C-alpha cells in the first residue's frame, strides 16, 4: 500500500505535469486567465515539496527530545502551503490588473482550451485520490494538498468557462476579469487553510462523533470498573491523543485494574488508528457526580 511519503512524491510529479500543460496553454493563447491558472500550479509544486519534507519528519519515531513524536510537522507544512497560496493569489491579481488595463487578443483558442481541459481532468482525478488516501492515513499534509488541488480544479473550471466565453464573444475584458475572480477565490482558500492548520497546532479536540465513539468503547470494554471521567483528546497529525480517569473498586488489585486498562486500550486502538492512550486509575471514592462515562455492568 502506498504510504504518505510516496503520495507526496506522486503529488509533486502530477503537479509538474499539470503545470507544464497549463504553461503550454498560456504560451499558445497569451491568456492572462490561463497564466493565472498556471501560476497556481507552481504553488502545487512548492506545496507538495513542503508536504514531502514535513511527512518525512512526521513519520520519524519518538526520540529523547521529542518523546511524543513528530506528528505536528504536518501542520507546519499546511501553514506554509497556505502562505504560498496567498502569495500566488497576489501575483495573479497583479497580472490580472495589468491585463485589465491593456486587454490583448487571444491566440490559438481551441488548442489552449483543449490543453486546459486535459490539465483540469488530470488535476481533479489526482485530488480525489489524494483525499481518499489522506483520510485513510489521517494525514493533515495530504488532506491540505488535496483541498488545495480541488480549489485549483474549480478554479480551472472557471478559467476554462471564461476563456471559452471570451473566444465565442470576443469580449477581451472577460479574460482579466476571470483572472481576478480566480485570485480572490485562491485568497479565500489560503485563509481557510491557515485557519485549519492553526487549529491543529492549538491541540484541537476530536469531533463530537469521535468523542462519542471513544466513550462507547470505554463503556463496552470497561467491565469491572465503575466509571470513567475527565476525558481529554487532541489531534496531532495522524495521531490521536486520548486520556481519562478510570475509577475502580477500592479492593481491586493493581493487576486486575491493569487488565481492564489493557482491554480498553486494545479496543480503542482497533477502532482508532494512531491512538495514543493514557489512563489514570483511581479508587472508588473518586466517583464523580459530574458528567462521566458509565461502564457496562460496572463494579460487577
UniProtKB/TrEMBL annotation:
One GO CC term, this protein: plasma membrane
Stored Gene3D superfamilies: Cation efflux protein transmembrane domain, Cation efflux protein, cytoplasmic domain
Record key words, sorted: Cell membrane, Membrane, Transmembrane, Transmembrane helix, Transport
Membrane topology of the entry: Multi-pass membrane protein
Domain (Cation efflux protein cytoplasmic): residue spans on this chain: 207-283
Spans traversing the lipid bilayer: 7-28, 34-55, 75-97, 109-130, 151-171, 177-194
Residue span(s) of domain Cation efflux protein transmembrane: 9-202
Pfam families: Cation_efflux, ZT_dimer
Swiss-Prot/TrEMBL GO biological process terms: intracellular zinc ion homeostasis
Localization of this protein: Cell membrane
Family: Belongs to the cation diffusion facilitator (CDF) transporter (TC 2.A.4) family.
Stated name of the protein: Protein p34
Source organism: Saliniramus fredricksonii
Origin organism lineage: Bacteria, Pseudomonadati, Pseudomonadota, Alphaproteobacteria, Hyphomicrobiales
Amino acid at each position: 500500500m502506498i504510504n504518505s511519503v510516496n503520495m507526496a512524491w506522486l503529488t509533486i510529479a502530477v503537479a509538474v505535469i499539470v503545470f507544464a500543460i497549463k504553461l503550454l496553454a498560456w504560451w499558445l493563447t497569451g491568456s492572462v486567465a490561463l497564466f493565472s491558472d498556471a501560476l497556481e500550479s507552481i504553488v502545487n509544486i512548492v506545496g507538495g515539496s513542503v508536504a514531502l519534507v514535513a511527512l518525512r519528519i512526521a513519520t520519524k519515531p519518538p526520540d529523547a527530545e521529542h518523546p511524543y513524536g513528530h506528528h505536528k510537522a504536518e501542520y507546519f507544512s499546511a501553514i506554509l502551503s497556505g502562505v504560498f497560496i496567498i502569495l500566488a493569489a497576489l501575483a495573479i491579481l497583479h497580472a490580472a490588473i495589468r491585463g485589465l488595463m491593456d486587454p490583448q487578443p487571444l491566440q490559438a483558442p481551441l488548442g489552449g482550451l483543449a490543453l486546459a481541459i486535459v490539465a483540469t481532468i488530470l488535476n481533479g482525478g489526482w485530488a480525489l485520490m489524494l483525499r481518499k488516501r489522506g483520510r485513510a492515513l489521517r494525514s493533515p499534509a495530504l488532506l491540505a494538498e488535496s483541498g488545495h488541488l480541488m480549489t485549483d480544479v474549480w478554479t480551472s473550471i472557471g478559467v476554462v468557462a471564461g476563456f471559452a466565453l471570451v473566444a465565442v464573444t470576443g469580449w477581451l475584458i472577460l479574460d482579466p476579469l476571470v483572472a481576478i475572480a480566480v485570485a480572490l477565490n485562491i485568497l479565500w482558500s489560503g485563509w481557510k487553510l491557515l485557519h485549519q492548520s492553526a487549529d491543529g497546532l492549538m491541540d484541537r479536540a476530536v469531533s463530537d462523533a469521535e468523542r462519542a465513539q471513544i466513550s462507547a468503547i470505554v463503556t463496552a470494554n470497561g467491565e469491572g470498573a465503575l466509571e470513567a471521567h475527565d476525558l481529554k483528546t487532541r489531534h496531532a497529525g495522524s495521531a490521536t491523543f486520548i486520556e481519562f480517569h478510570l475509577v475502580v473498586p477500592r479492593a481491586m488489585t493493581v493487576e486486575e485494574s491493569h487488565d481492564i486498562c489493557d482491554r480498553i486500550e486494545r479496543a480503542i486502538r482497533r477502532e482508532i488508528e494512531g491512538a495514543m492512550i493514557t489512563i489514570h486509575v483511581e479508587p472508588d471514592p473518586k466517583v464523580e457526580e459530574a458528567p462521566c462515562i458509565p461502564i457496562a455492568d460496572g463494579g460487577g
